[in-house]
Specification:
The protein is mainly β. The protein is 0% helix and 60% strand. It starts with 9 loop residues before the first strand and ends with a strand.
Amino acid sequence: MLVRYAAATVLLAGALALPTSTAAAAEISPLSARGCTGNPGSNGSKCIEVKGTRLHVDTVKTTLTKNHADNCGKATIQIGSWKKTSGNICEARSFSWGPLTVNRSFPDGTKACAWWSNYPDGKACVTIHD
């Protein structure tokens, strides 16, 4: 079975997040970055939202939106070596976990990614950038 993986990537640069890929949607706002991958009408849309300034991450949140009800799932968020996994989250169409307090600075170029166990084909990622 062939499985394709896709990831949205944006840079968190000073006060602005800059998209580095046009392959997936990304919403940009000052002092934060949001990256999404997938399609809510098919394999699920996974998103990560990072809030912070420059290399410092204050909070992080992930969501999964899909077209139909599915089994419970666990979310995982990883920023460099910082990693957290939720307990089971059981919702019909829109799963959400966070915001989680991170309150740490990371090296320039560190990736922040989120994925869901019940829709494992893809990660949503942003890159922290000074």
